[in-house]
């Protein structure tokens, strides 16, 4: 019962407990999103889109209309919904593979066009759903199933800097930030601003959240948090990269 | 203020692409998503010029994957959304179309076939039959209308919207570069003035009410965890596809009774076939003509009946046997006396060639290559 009380109102109770692995950041991010949905009271107008990847496990997560799409294609589905009915609020939820690899052209072009949708991207430095392969965000030296000796930047480059890239191409009115599961308060502030930016219809909203994948990282609870707070934080700077008024929180 | 169609009946002399744009308007389409590719470009050009006056919308997407998935989004939001493509674009469309098949999302895509494989020519071909009918990792749950002239492009584009929104399966209108770019006369009309009803569009997401309290939330998915769950979700769809198939399947046929030979073709090539059987008749040779109008579902029973009347066949197409494969499958285990073919990938076929071929076959020759 106490667990139920702690649940955001917008959560779909029947689908809880959720299907993410223990210690996975997805659950934390969706908790924060649920609280923001409640606080901004947008449940009626919301269309939640989830990608293929572990984000698909959220297909019945909220008491909000939800469309689970194909891998990488959540952005265009949400763009289509928004263009067809601008009254709705569209949030595309995806992993780093979905957003920065297979769906990168959609992300970049939605940013170019300042689509009035929000993209919420979970950076866990690997392809979780398919069993832990290298992602565009994998850290140098990080071992994954397809970089078993560690990612070699000479061969496969450096971790993708998503928000930096998006911030470089968006027109005015966009909101672009990176948060982390290691700082829930900041994550909630950014999440709220990103959603509010769409409510105000100012422009594209993009939030990347640094997350955890203990299953594929093969880490203990302590190691998981260390990787998030030390290793990942070293490469991925949290903060706001573009805001509509350009008063940024570093 | 949204205008209504400026005509109830209007004889015009226009390109096929212009006819399609007007037909989409007449069918009540609200929004087009598209990516440039020859020979469909002018559908977008006409649509973008018509759109503002009629309160319609357009978005040029970053590629055809996006055109397909934004179309799906538009449909889910309750609008009649559509797209148009060709060649390599039709390849990219397979991904969104399979999602539409699985999730029973109505969707209309005009395909103006061009040469293939690959980028090939931008002009004409009938090489997108396989792709239109069975592309994608699914079971081919789509309706494919192969049109032969501009009047049909207009008629079947309107029909495509109605069939899509009545049965909730994706529908392709399969034209080609000749039909797209040629001018031809046709009668454009307001469906209402002919007493035709348009199937209404309904929103799937974002309907009124509070999800979880005043109405259940809509949770759409295409991913399943176990095999049985998938099987159970597919079989009702197959049943509905089959029952729809009986209602939408269409063919055209002439002079098969008492014919010496039946020419089987589809799309623009069937115009040559119709002309050829006329000329052959003048020479005292009785040839029949059979044409599937729906490539998928294929008019199997009608073809079987025709072949029971005349089991000597000549299959003609601007491709290397894509239609012929469908014909053979439809005639599996049926007695066929002869099966000649003319396959011309990416090239047009004339009535004269068909007349010559039929005469040659009568003299005991063959056209097979
Ligand atoms: C077109 C296509 N290619 C590949 C896949 C297989 N696939 C499923 S999920 C996934 C990667 C998921 O990784 P990510 O997007 O980072 O999300 P995560 O699971 O880590 O949350 C891949 C490659 C697919 N479903 N569709
Ligand atoms: S595999 Fe990783 S990302 Fe996926 S649910 Fe498990 S911990 Fe989370």
CATH-assigned homologous superfamily of the largest domain in chain B? Thiamin diphosphate (ThDP)-binding fold, Pyr/PP domains
Number of domains of chain A: 1
Order of helices and strands of chain B: EHEHEHEHEHEHEHEEHEEHEEHEHEH
The pair of chains with the biggest contact is: A-B, 36 and 43 residues
Secondary structure layout plus pairing:
The complex is a heterodimer of chains A (250) and B (369).
Chain A: H1 2-6, H2 25-40, E1 46-50, E2 65-68, H3 74-84, E3 89-95, H4 96-102, H5 104-112, E4 118-123, E5 126-127, E6 133-134, H6 153-156, H7 162-169, E7 175-180, H8 184-199, E8 205-210, H9 214-217, H10 221-235, E9 239-242
Parallel strand pairs in A: 1-2, 1-3, 3-4, 4-8, 7-8
Antiparallel strand pairs in A: 5-6, 7-9
Chain B: E1 9-15, H1 16-26, E2 31-34, H2 41-50, E3 57-60, H3 64-76, E4 81-85, H4 87-103, E5 107-113, H5 129-134, E6 143-146, H6 150-167, E7 170-176, H7 177-181, E8 183-189, E9 219-220, H8 227-248, E10 251-254, E11 261-264, H9 269-282, E12 287-292, E13 294-296, H10 300-309, E14 312-317, H11 322-330, E15 338-343, H12 351-362
Parallel strand pairs in B: 2-3, 2-4, 4-5, 5-7, 6-7, 11-12, 11-14, 14-15
Antiparallel strand pairs in B: 1-8, 6-13, 10-12
Helix pairs in contact in B: 1-2, 1-6, 3-4, 9-12
Bound molecules: thiamine diphosphate (TPP) and iron/sulfur cluster.
Quick structural gist:
The complex is a heterodimer of chains A (250) and B (369). With 250 residues, chain A is α/β, with parallel strands linked by helices.
Task: Write a concise keyword list for the protein shown above.
heterodimer, A: 250 residues, alpha/beta, seven-stranded mixed sheet, 10 helices, 9 strands, 17% strand, B: 369 residues, Rossmann fold, 2 domains, five-stranded mixed sheet, 40% helix, binds thiamine diphosphate, binds iron/sulfur cluster
């Amino acid at each position: 019962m106490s667990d139920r009380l702690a649940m955001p109102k917008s959560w779909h109770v029947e689908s809880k407990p959720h299907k993410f692995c223990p210690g996975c950041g997805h659950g934390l991010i969706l908790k924060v999103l649920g609280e923001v949905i409640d606080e901004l009271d947008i449940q009626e107008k919301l269309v939640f889109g989830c990608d293929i990847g572990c984000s698909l496990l959220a297909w019945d997560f909220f008491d909000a209309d939800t469309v689970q799409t194909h891998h990488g294609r959540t952005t265009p589905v949400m763009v289509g919904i928004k263009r067809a009915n601008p009254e709705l609020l569209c949030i595309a939820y995806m992993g780093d593979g979905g957003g920065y690899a297979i769906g990168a052209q959609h992300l970049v072009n939605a940013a170019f066009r300042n689509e009035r949708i929000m993209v919420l991207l979970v950076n866990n430095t690997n392809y979780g759903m398919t069993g832990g392969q290298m992602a565009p965000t994998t850290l140098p030296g990080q071992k994954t199933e397809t970089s078993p000796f560690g990612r070699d930047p000479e061969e496969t480059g450096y971790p993708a800097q998503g928000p930096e890239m998006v911030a470089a191409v968006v027109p005015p009115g966009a909101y672009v930030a990176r948060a982390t599961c290691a700082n829930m308060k900041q994550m909630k502030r950014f999440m709220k601003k990103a959603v509010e930016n769409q409510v105000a219809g100012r422009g594209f909203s993009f939030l990347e959240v640094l997350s955890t994948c203990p299953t594929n990282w093969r880490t203990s609870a302590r190691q998981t948090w260390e990787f998030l707070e030390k290793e990942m934080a070293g490469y991925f700077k949290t903060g706001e990269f573009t805001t509509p008024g350009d008063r940024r929180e570093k | 203020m949204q205008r209504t169609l400026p005509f109830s009946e209007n004889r015009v002399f226009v390109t096929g692409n212009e006819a399609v744009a007007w037909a989409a308007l007449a069918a009540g389409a609200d929004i087009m998503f598209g990516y440039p590719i020859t020979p469909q470009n002018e559908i977008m050009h006409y649509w973008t010029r018509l759109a503002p006056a009629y309160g319609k919308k357009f978005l040029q997407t970053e590629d055809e994957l996006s055109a397909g998935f934004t179309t799906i989004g538009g449909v889910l939001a309750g609008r009649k959304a559509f797209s148009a493509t060709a060649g390599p674009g039709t390849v990219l469309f397979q991904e969104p179309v399979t999602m539409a098949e699985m999730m029973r999302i109505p969707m209309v895509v005009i395909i103006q076939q061009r040469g293939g494989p690959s980028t090939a020519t931008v002009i004409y071909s009938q090489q997108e039959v396989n792709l239109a009918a069975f592309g994608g990792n699914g079971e081919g749950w789509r309706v494919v209308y192969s049109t032969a002239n501009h009047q049909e492009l207009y008629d079947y584009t309107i029909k495509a919207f109605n069939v899509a929104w009545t049965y909730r399966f994706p529908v392709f209108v399969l034209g080609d570069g000749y039909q797209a770019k040629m001018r031809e006369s046709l009668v454009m009309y307001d469906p209402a003035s002919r007493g035709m009803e348009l199937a209404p569009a309904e929103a799937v997401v974002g309907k009124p009410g509070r999800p979880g309290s005043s109405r259940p939330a809509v949770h759409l998915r295409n991913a399943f965890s176990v095999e049985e769950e998938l099987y159970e979700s597919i079989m009702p769809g197959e049943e509905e596809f089959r029952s729809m198939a009986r209602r939408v399947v269409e063919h055209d046929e002439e002079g098969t009774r008492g014919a010496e030979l039946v020419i089987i073709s589809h799309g623009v090539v069937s115009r040559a076939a119709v002309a050829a059987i006329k000329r052959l008749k003048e020479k005292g040779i009785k040839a029949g003509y059979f044409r599937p109008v729906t490539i998928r579902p294929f008019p199997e029973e009608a073809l079987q009946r025709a072949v029971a009347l005349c089991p000597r066949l000549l299959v003609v197409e601007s491709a290397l046997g894509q239609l012929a494969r469908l014909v053979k499958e439809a005639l599996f285990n049926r007695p066929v006396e002869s099966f000649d073919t003319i396959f011309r990938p990416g090239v047009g076929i004339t009535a004269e060639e068909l007349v010559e071929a039929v005469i040659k076959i009568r003299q005991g020759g063959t056209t097979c290559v």
